[in-house]
Amino acid sequence: MSSWSLSVDDAGVATLTLDCPGSKLNILSREAFQQLDDMLSELSRRRDIRGLLLVSGKPDNFVAGANIEEFLALQSAAAAAEASRQAQAVFQRFEGLPYPRVAAIHGVCLGGGLELILTCSERVVSDSPKTALAAPEVKLGLIPGAGGTQRLPRIVGLANALDLNMSGRTVGPKQALKMGLVSLAVPREHLLAAAGRELARLQRREPKRSAPLAARLGRWVLEENPFGRILLYRGARKQLEKIGGHYPAPGYALEAMRAGVEHGPAEGYRTESRLFGELALTEVSRELIRLFFATNDAKKDTGVDDRSVRPEPIARLGVIGSGFMGSGIAQVAAERGTAVRLHDVNAQMLGKALAGCHDELRKKLTRKRMSPQDFQQSMDRISVSTDLTGFQRIDLVIEAVFEDLEVKRKVLRDCEAVMPPRAIFASNTSSIPIVQIAASSLRPEQVLGMHFFSPVPRMPLLEVIVTPRTAPWVTATAVAYGKAMGKTVIVVRDSCGFYTSRVLAFYLNEAALMVEEGADISEVDRAMSEFGFPVGPFTLLDEVGLDIGTHVTRVMAAGFGDRLKAAAAFESVTGAGRLGRKNKRGFYTYGKGKKAVDASVYDLLPGGRNRTHLPAHEIQQRLWLTFAAECARCLEESVLARPRDGDLGAVLGLGFPPFLGGPFRYMDRIGLAQTAKGLEQLAARHGARFAPPALVIGMASEGRRFHGE
Q1: Pair (99, 217) in one structural domain
Q2: In CATH, what number is assigned to the domain containing residue 140?
Q3: How many angstroms separate the CA atoms of 463 and 488, rounded?
Q4: CA-CA distance, 171 to 187, in Å (whole number)?
Q5: Contact status, residue 165 vs residue 253, Cβ threshold 8 Å
Q6: What's the whole-number mean pLDDT along residues 232-238?
Q7: Could you tell me if 353 and 413 lie in one domain?
Q8: Which of 81, 103, 350, 677 could pair covalently with 117 via S-S, beta carbons 3.0-4.6 A apart?
Q9: DSSP state of 30
Q10: What distance in Å separates the CA atoms of residue 253 and residue 99, rounded to the nearest whole number?
């Protein structure tokens, strides 16, 4: 059955509908391209067609992109380049049809879908928040391969095209209209009628809609003369420097666009195909694609082995604690349709939390990412109280108070006194074992952890922590609700620090021990940024807050004993009143908007201001292997159910470099034997805490990998 269907009315208007059979989404597979090529043969033969409307048969999806699985099947750069040339040829045939073509777009239009609509004469979109357009190929280590690097500059201008193709960012209807990517943005119910009117306008050969004067002047100054374009290319190169050298795709996108603009379409298309082929077989692209699949696989997990277990609906959520975490949880839940009761004993804090939710949602409204109705409904779903009034009807309570065991136990007891018998209690703790919190519970089987990451509206990961007593239906409900909040969910077994906080604690503590031994703070941060982390360990500590980091380290040190020798640097620095960015004094100072290591911080550390230079690779090896060893121990101890979850947790929650695929993927790549050898060498120099996990040694001796494929 074909993905494409054609109908032609009496006026000669053809409607070409894309509706991939057996799928909720439209995906442009090789088969779909071939079917379109066959359809183009019919469209070219027919003489009764005067114009064409391109539409989707899916309710809220135009095209979700190309079939990514087919990219992994490519065996050579030459094969990948040839696949690109074939896709270009099909779209050039579509572009060459002898009558106007208008795309009517509602829902996501990504990757190959965006390249498809660029071949149309005009594009009309619904103004729904569900409508989103992007060229996200760079996020998979690729560039558009069906002409997207060539057509986009012609349609939206070089500056906008550089931004979209090099960043992969998504634009909504308002932004698409402003940059000239689409000609109209209308309510969804008027989409087809508006597209029909636009087609009729083109059939009458009326002049193309003019871009705003400021946009035309900008394009003339910067894009229609070689000197202006040099400035644009130079600015793009500066952006590449910020990204670093780990991700080649944005630079390749720049090269492909420049080839077309400076040397003409034929050279541009040849360059695009060649560069697409080169990228498709890189480890960076392969790892990013695998990470994409891992994220999608996690969406299918229920969190329990028994598939007969069904989650219970969560209609009403209670959130205890209105700080940054609590208010973020409340905002996301309300935005996703849940009635939220936000509780705090401090009325002033509640007022700030409510104002914060209002401001964040207002930003989305201003940017047209939500409608006025959705904005008002989201705010109406949040109510606040200084007592537990209303908690008698709550389905789930998420506690987000200070990391103190007795405080959390009291909150649990107070909530259970008023909660319905089937209500679930979840702690947002980042380090305290859930079983210790649940010790004071009347219903410990209904207690678990839901560890969100800050800031909640933007961080994609949720770590659900289960104890031996947590009921399967409770786990399934927490997982399902986490997905409903838009999170990627991993389920981990209860223990000290669980997975993410535990691994992070060992990593940050080892960095602090290095500085106590004489390493330079900025050199350590720079080395780990060069490794691929978004920020170095000391910058991260300052951002989190040194008071929080010190408290978590104490908890971890108590839980892991000799294996986690807590660095004295934490107590020394926080004892001097340095809390990080929050008071502009931590390992760095933040005066007048500038961040710099204050030499006086070394006076608080062993060795004082006499620092020892360490090569970047030594810093990276020591900290990376600390990170990797603890990940492996979490799998060895069944804290993690599978390596995939460890990779997702590290990348989405801890900032582990995505281009490496995750710690387990990276250990597979360098080899488990080499991983064990590196740890043994560190153990010989720095002590038994670096002893390789038995799991790594055993798998290395058997020649096994964490990921079997």
Answers
A1: yes
A2: 3.90.226.10
A3: 9
A4: 17
A5: yes
A6: 89
A7: yes
A8: 103
A9: H
A10: 31
Q: What is the DSSP letter of 137?
A: G
| Residue 332: Cβ-neighbour burial (10 angstroms; 0-12, 13-18, 19+) | buried
For the segment 235-245, the average pLDDT, to the nearest whole number, is 85
Give the per-residue pLDDT at 313: 96
Cα(683)–Cα(690) distance, rounded to whole angstroms?
5
What is the C-alpha to C-alpha distance for residues 464 and 48, in angstroms, rounded to an integer? Answer: 60
Question: Distance (Å, rounded) from C-alpha 381 to C-alpha 330?
Answer: 9
What lies within 8 Å, CB to CB, of 643 at 6+ separation is: 635, 662, 664, 665, 706, 707
Any domain includes 310: no
What per-residue confidence (pLDDT) applies to 215?
59
Write out pLDDT tens, residues 92-137: 999 999 999 999 999 999 999 999 999 999 999 999 989 999 999 9
Residue at 88: amino acid letter = Q
- The residues facing 396 across adjacent strands are 317, 424
CATH of the domain at 359: 3.40.50.720
d(CA 339, CA 330): 9
- 97 in the same domain as 231: yes
Euclidean distance between CA atoms 85 and 103, whole angstroms: 23
Whether residue 549 contacts residue 570, with contact meaning beta carbons closer than 8 Å, is answered with yes
Domain range spanning residue 122?
4-281
**Residue 456 · residue 601 · CB < 8 Å:** no
**Do 216 and 210 contact (CB within 8 A), yes or no?**
yes
Structural domain includes residue 404? yes
Neighbours of 24 (CB within 10 A): 11
Q: Would 49 be classed as within a structural domain?
A: yes
Q: How far apart are CA 33 and CA 95, in angstroms?
A: 14
Specify if 287 maps to a domain.
Answer: no
Report whether 124 contacts 75 (CB < 8 A): no
440/532 same-domain check: no
Q: Please state at what angle helix 663-670 crosses helix 672-686, rounded to 10 degrees.
A: 100
CB–CB of 111/144 below 8 Å?
yes
Given 259, 281, 303, which residue is the final one in a domain?
281
Query: DSSP secondary-structure letter at 107?
Result: S
Picking from 499, 533, 567, the residue at the C-terminal end of a domain is 499
Decide if 441 contacts 416 (C-beta within 8 A).
yes
For residue 345, what are the contacts with CB-CB under 8 A and spacing of at least 6?
Answer: 386
Cα-Cα-Cα-Cα dihedral sign, residues 382, 384, 387, 390: negative
Measured distance CA(549)–CA(533) in Å, rounded: 18
To which residue do tokens 């933040």 refer? Answer: 590
Report d(CA 607, CA 611) in Å as an integer.
7
> Using one digit for the tens of pLDDT, what is the confidence trace for 577-597?
999 888 888 999 987 778 888
* Contact indicator for 133, 74 with CB cutoff of 8 Å: no
d(CA 180, CA 641): 48
CA 363 to the chain's CA centroid: 20
Q: Do residues 457 and 350 both lie within one domain?
A: yes
Report pTM.
0.92
> Which residues participate in catalysis according to the annotation?
463
Same structural domain for residues 531 and 402? no
Q: Do residues 247 and 284 touch, judged by C-beta distance below 8 A?
A: yes
Task: Enumerate the β-bridge partners of residue 6.
Answer: 16
Complete edge-to-edge strand list for the sheet that includes strand 132-134 = 61-63, 108-110, 132-134
First-last CA distance in the chain: 32
Beta strands in 64-156 (DSSP E): 65-66, 101-105, 108-110, 122-126, 132-134
In the chain, the number of structural domains is 3
Same-domain status, 37 and 145: yes
For 279-311, how does the pLDDT look when each residue is reduced to its tens digit (9 = 90+)?
Answer: 999 999 999 999 999 999 999 999 999 989 999
